[in-house]
Design brief:
alpha+beta; four-stranded antiparallel beta sheet
Length: 120
């Protein structure tokens, strides 16, 4: 096998692996999101970033606008998984001030501000 054919084979295998692992990550996210949707109204926020870890934050609010449950998905690889946010459970929407809740994490601040923003 020539060096070019070997390099192309490795690239194709890496690409197929990326597709498979990306699908696995999406399936894990969808399962976690579906579980939240069964509990009540869900707010979702996402921070942007091309070369830094992106953050997706989802929160469930009850009838009194208190956080019932939530998760955060953070990472730059397909190995990132949703992790439960227990620190925010029980807080009201008014108490969710992004720069107070996450003082040292601008990506989480952006995601939280979008998750609590009222939808039209």
């Amino acid at each position: 096998m020539s060096a070019t054919a070997l390099l192309v084979s490795i690239a194709v295998l890496a690409w197929v692996g990326q597709i498979i692992l990306g699908g696995w990550q999406i399936r894990c996210f969808n399962r976690a999101f579906d579980a939240l949707c069964l509990q009540g109204a869900v707010g979702v926020g996402r921070s942007a970033g091309r070369f830094k870890a992106r953050v997706v934050l989802a929160l469930v609010f009850d009838g009194e606008q208190r956080v019932c449950d939530g998760f955060v998905l953070r990472g730059i690889t397909v190995f990132a998984r949703p992790r439960r946010l227990t620190a925010l459970i029980g807080l009201s929407k008014e108490q969710l001030i992004p720069y107070v809740v996450f003082p040292k994490d601008p990506a989480l601040q952006i995601a939280l501000s979008l998750a609590i923003k009222p939808t039209l």
